[in-house]
Specification:
Length: 180
């Protein structure tokens, strides 16, 4: 059936919003221990302070030497769900975390347990170089890295949001072009 041109012109604008809503953006990766890449500085500090173990050094933040809009914060936390302790750090650009990282040390059991936990949470990993796995979705990714020395093992879980990371260019100092 053919529709007159004026019917299509009148109906087309009404159809556009419905079509735009039919394809939602992919959901961000699940948070890890209540944190996620892109979290605001205020939410990060509130959650980190709530999980800081009693008697430990409080959450510390350092700003960039160039601008207060870029900062790093870190603290040792204890997860109330399973009692696991991590060194938690966040790197913030304009008040949002481009990177949230968890670090821990232990034995081979720690690496195996963490690998199992992240596989259950995010699915099949993608190998990333030596001793690292990654999971990605859109501009966000999760990376698990592990290192060893003798019987000791270190793990790092890094949550990254590339959209937030791209904003660092707004805060870099501008240098004058070299003169000839």
């Amino acid at each position: 059936m053919r529709f007159p041109a004026f019917v299509l012109l009148v109906a087309a604008p009404a159809l556009l919003p419905a079509q735009a809503q039919s394809h939602p953006a992919p959901a961000p990766l699940l948070p890890y221990r209540g944190f996620h890449a892109g979290i605001s500085l205020a939410d990060f500090t509130a959650r980190a302070r709530a999980l800081t173990r009693a008697g430990s050094t409080p959450l510390l933040c350092n700003t960039s030497t160039h601008t207060a809009e870029v900062m790093e914060c870190g603290v040792i936390i204890r997860d109330p769900d399973d009692g696991a302790e991590f060194y938690l750090s966040g790197h913030f650009i304009g008040g949002r975390a481009d990177v949230v990282s968890f670090g821990d040390s232990g034995t081979t059991d720690l690496v195996v347990r963490t690998q199992r936990e992240l596989r259950a949470r995010y699915g099949r990993p993608r190998p990333v170089g030596t001793a690292a796995w990654g999971w990605g979705q859109g501009p966000q990714f999760v990376r698990l890295t592990w290192r060893a020395r003798a019987a000791r093992r270190w793990i790092f879980i890094q949550l990254t949001d590339m959209d937030v990371m791209r904003n660092i260019g707004h805060y870099l100092p501008r240098h004058a072009a070299p003169t000839r």
